């Protein structure tokens, strides 16, 4: 159940009720691909850094440890000791990005595991069955994520197939939720809008999937090579054709600036590996832009990563110390950087929600974007 509490232009401040708790939107989902946030971050850490939703990956958990093992152990929430919402993506993106050898057919996709090369088949029903075994709060529909440079003809055929697959996902999800041994019988299904950078294909697809009356809708296939301007243009075209009374999720996006711009275009849900991946490489987000702790100028810098930040890294450690840990390849360095970046993102989402509630989102966005440029000017 999704409820809009306040709007400011196209920006929406909402609440999304789930069986694992209510999500305050706009929200950034923290990515824990294999049921863990990379960088030695546990679920007890996530509770401390304001994480609302954890995101795990269907394909990776199917390959190892195996979704049947997760089901046997009580589902993903129990397995990883997390009591808040979890979204699982369908495995579609990984099938297309990781698998060099694959065959896409109407029934689904045949491909080889990137771990041990074994042959795997995944179609809409299989993806739903795996996600049901994982017992996530929100399951994503199985779709094809075509390349951003694919031809118009290819993208149109791919989108048509994704629509047919979505119908199959919905039917299978309904069946699974009615079974006696299903762990989460209230699992929700989000459909995914595709269409590359073709506005008309995107809009037609949005209309078609809206008719299926799903729990939420994602815009997929962006942040895969097109420019930021093209991404914003697609959002402006397609979001008005997705249901206003359901959450809108922009998949795999993005930078803090991307998020600020997408909220302004009506997006509620986000996820991205940037904060964790960049953190592991010593690249840290601040309100004055990104800093790279490997730079020599931080060698004797006894300030926190960001003055006033309440994350575990900033409260207890200096830039100089964390830089030393990274240089010495101590895992604690990576961990502290990842915690800071996720705290930064989660805090920014809190500020976004407050700004929409106060009706001054455009001023907040302008000020935030201006601040991000400060380190660039030095």
From TrEMBL:
Keywords: Glycosyltransferase, Metal-binding, Queuosine biosynthesis, Transferase, tRNA processing, Zinc. Its cofactor is Zn(2+). Binds 1 zinc ion per subunit. The active site is at 89 (proton acceptor), 271 (nucleophile). InterPro entries: ArchSynthase1/Queuine_TRR (IPR050076), TGT (IPR004803), TGT-like_sf (IPR036511), tRNA_ribo_trans-like (IPR002616). NCBIfam families: Q_tRNA_tgt (TIGR00430), tgt_general (TIGR00449). This is Queuine tRNA-ribosyltransferase. It comes from Eubacterium album.
């Amino acid at each position: 159940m999704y409820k809009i509490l306040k709007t400011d232009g196209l920006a929406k401040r909402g609440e999304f009720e789930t069986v694992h708790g209510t999500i305050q939107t706009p929200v950034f989902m923290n990515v824990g691909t294999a049921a863990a946030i990379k960088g030695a971050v546990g679920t007890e850490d996530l509770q401390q850094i304001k994480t609302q939703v954890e995101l795990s990956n269907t394909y990776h958990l199917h390959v190892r440890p195996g979704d049947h093992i997760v089901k046997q152990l009580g589902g993903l929430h129990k397995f990883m000791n997390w009591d808040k919402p979890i979204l699982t993506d369908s495995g579609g993106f990984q099938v297309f990005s990781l698998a060099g050898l694959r065959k896409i057919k109407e029934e689904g996709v045949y491909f080889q595991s990137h771990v041990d090369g074994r042959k795997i088949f995944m179609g809409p029903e299989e993806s739903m069955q795996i996600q049901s075994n994982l017992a996530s709060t929100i399951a994503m529909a199985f779709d094809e994520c075509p390349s951003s440079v694919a031809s118009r003809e290819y993208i149109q055929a791919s989108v048509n197939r994704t629509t047919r697959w979505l119908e199959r996902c919905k039917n299978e999800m309904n069946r699974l939720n009615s079974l006696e041994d299903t762990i989460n019988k209230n699992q929700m299904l989000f459909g995914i809008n595709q269409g590359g950078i073709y506005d008309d294909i995107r809009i037609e697809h949005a209309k078609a999937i809206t008719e299926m009356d799903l729990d939420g809708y994602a815009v997929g296939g962006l942040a895969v090579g097109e420019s930021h301007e093209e991404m914003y243009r697609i959002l402006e075209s397609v979001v008005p054709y997705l249901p206003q009374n359901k959450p809108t999720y922009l998949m795999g996006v993005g930078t803090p600036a991307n998020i600020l711009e997408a909220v302004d275009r009506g997006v509620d849900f986000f996820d991205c590996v940037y904060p964790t991946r960049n953190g592991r490489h010593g690249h840290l987000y601040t309100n004055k832009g990104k800093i790279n702790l490997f730079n020599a100028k931080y060698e004797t810098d006894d300030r926190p990563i960001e003055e006033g930040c309440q994350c575990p890294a900033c409260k207890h450690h200096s830039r100089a110390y964390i830089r030393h840990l990274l240089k010495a390849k101590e895992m604690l360095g990576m961990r502290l950087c990842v915690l800071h970046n996720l705290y930064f993102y989660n805090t920014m989402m809190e500020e976004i929600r407050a700004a929409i509630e106060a009706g001054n989102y455009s001023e907040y966005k302008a000020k935030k974007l201006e601040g991000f440029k400060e380190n660039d000017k030095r």
